[in-house]
């Protein structure tokens, strides 16, 4: 369905008991984040802060669970969109043998035309109020986490265009506020807007930019969608909302924006101007992304609806609202991936703990030897999938949405020395584990049932299912005192994997310890050991996976122990500890994890009963404060 505006979406959320209005004063600096973090961790309601000290209410966590994400997209289940895309693709690309078949296509072609965005004449609702003196500080822009460089606009729908072709791009890049008419634009080197910027630089021209906030929530989603270059995000939005997006001309820049948006910020970037030092920022990885140089955005006009609502989000240690936006992408783009690149794919999951690019699980219909490797390489060559650090491929009837079931399947079907491949390539700029920024190691795991040509030895078949997975934790800690904790809960579930926390004290410590543990027989039937530092609570498996997947460069930090003969199990250790210059030769700064301050936590505790949020929810930061490293956003050596 198409929402008339953001207010319409708010009303719909409220009718479905998915929204709480908070009338108590809450400061946008740190306090809204603390409340939202508590609520998002329990998949709680959308929050409308009506008393922020500003003239505009603030909406947050509006897409923070499965039901609300579906409501934003106008469906009951996300797989409805996948099925519709597949049907449309088959209709348009299937063989057309006769006139009747061709005529049957006409309604579909008409549908596609109806999704194309349209520029309308006159002003839009987004231009009902024109600020005489544009001032972005008049809005309740959040400072999210204690070490953030300042307040950041976190849901900006940013419009740029290619100066040579005029083709529009709509993306989402955070904006740090530096003054009433100055922000930074944080676009990474791989993004389309960064390419547009480089084209304007070659031409010696200023780059017009417009930012939309609010409107139909599908605009926000479309701005995050990993569309191929040159495909209009507003065509996707039209398809999702079943109604074309109406655009209006900006007042001071040659850019078109949604007429029903709540707030429009117009301005330009001068490619000849020096960059500004932007950040740090508490990011979706659960760590700070560190400060760096980014382009300045000069504001030339701000317009808004009369009853405008300022939309925002926070990102941080999962789960957060962005996990559900990622879930939508997982489901929506499953169809196109199957249809155009990897036809053997049956299903795909991006686990929340993998924060988008760190981990993906793919299920295929397997027909021939080496097919899992073909799938891995295809996906690493596909758009933003190139950033994926770890790809696990399964087959058969396993339910990949059941974490324990898929873990058992992987455990039973993987021979570490034979079924794990290491590669390298481009990585997400936010990946702090790479020795070189945006370039690092990748790991592919073939967890499919093996055909005869793929096995190291037929004597290994079924061995994982009958192996004794009990270990002597006390003996391990006695012989290796640097081991501070062992989490063997996965072994008890029949999964050949163990988490080990270690106080790392010397160069090569983890690789050496891994070799000793396996060669001593203390982990005889364990295939995988994941090592984390001793400050981490490894009893929480989801947290352990989140920390590991952020901290590991698999090619650098994976240590395979080959079997002595073809009748024995092989092993792999993966070093998910923090890397330092002293012990690892790691030259880059290492970022801290995210946690609220004690002062903020205590204040929200005191006012909780006034917020209308029901039963008290303790701060997630109480746990993570204990795991903070020394230093601020950058960890001290």
TrEMBL record:
Q: Which GO terms describe its molecular function?
A: 4-hydroxy-3-polyprenylbenzoate decarboxylase activity
* GO biological process per UniProt: ubiquinone biosynthetic process
Domain of life, source organism? Bacteria
Cross-referenced SUPFAM superfamilies: FMN-binding split barrel, UbiD C-terminal domain-like
Every 3-octaprenyl-4-hydroxybenzoate carboxy-lyase-like Rift-related domain range: 121-318
Q: Which InterPro entries does UniProt cross-reference here?
A: HBDC, UbiD, UbiD-like_C, UbiD-like_N, UbiD_Rift_dom
Q: Where is the 3-octaprenyl-4-hydroxybenzoate carboxy-lyase-like C-terminal domain?
A: 324-447, 474-573
Q: Which Pfam families match?
A: UbiD, UbiD_C, UbiD_N
Task: List the GO cellular component terms.
Answer: cytosol
3-octaprenyl-4-hydroxybenzoate carboxy-lyase-like N-terminal domain location is: 10-81
Q: Which PANTHER family does this entry report, sorted A to Z?
A: 3-OCTAPRENYL-4-HYDROXYBENZOATE CARBOXY-LYASE-RELATED, FERULIC ACID DECARBOXYLASE 1
Protein family (similarity comment): Belongs to the UbiD family.
- By what name is this protein known? Menaquinone biosynthesis decarboxylase
The uppermost taxa in this organism's lineage are: Bacteria, Pseudomonadati, Bacteroidota, Sphingobacteriia, Sphingobacteriales
